[in-house]
Design goal:
Keywords: Endonuclease, Hydrolase, Nuclease. InterPro entries: His-Me_finger_sf, HNH_nuc. The protein has about 140 residues and is an alpha+beta fold. It folds into two domains: about 1-60, no CATH class; about 60-138, no CATH class. The protein is about 40% helix and about 20% strand. The chain contains three helices and five strands, in the order E-E-E-H-E-E-H-H. The protein has helices at about 50-55, 85-105, 105-135; strands at about 20-25, 30-35, 40-45, 65-70, 80-85. The radius of gyration is 17 Å and the shape is globular.
């Protein structure tokens, strides 16, 4: 078992313990899994969308990245709704969406929201292609 930077024990998303994990919905609407790890002798928590993304892609979420729900619904954990995003780009996306929501009615906000997300997804895709071309692997 390896440790993350925060010295919290890390239990791989591939570990069978997550298959039978208990869950709860946190105050932000995310589904959080928790299991008792007999090796670490601790109860460990992981967000469901992170476990699912890591299993689908066969790797950990890279450092300085997070998993974004494309449609904004925090409990819609379909793999096609999850995108790995550099944290700086993720903060920029949410900043832009917040500004937009303050200036538009809900109907127009939802229309514009899709355009802003598509623009950011295009930027993220370009960023990932550049990293691959430069041989930077996370």
């Amino acid at each position: 078992m390896e440790s993350t930077e925060s010295k919290t024990p890390y239990l791989s998303s591939k570990n069978h313990l997550w298959d039978n994990a208990k869950s709860f919905r946190n105050s932000a609407g995310y589904i959080v899994l928790y299991v008792y790890d007999p090796v670490a002798k601790k109860t460990l928590h992981r967000m469901l969308h992170i476990v699912l993304w890591e299993r689908a892609h066969g790797k950990r979420v890279p450092p300085r990245c997070c998993i974004h729900h494309l449609n904004g619904i925090t409990d819609d954990n379909r793999v096609e709704n999850l995108l790995c995003v550099p944290k700086t780009m993720h903060m920029r996306l949410h900043r832009d969406l917040k500004r937009l929501s303050q200036s538009l009615s809900p109907v127009f906000f939802n229309i514009k929201r899709h355009a802003i997300i598509s623009e950011h997804v295009d930027q993220i895709t370009e960023h990932q292609k550049r990293r691959e071309r430069w041989g930077i692997h996370s």
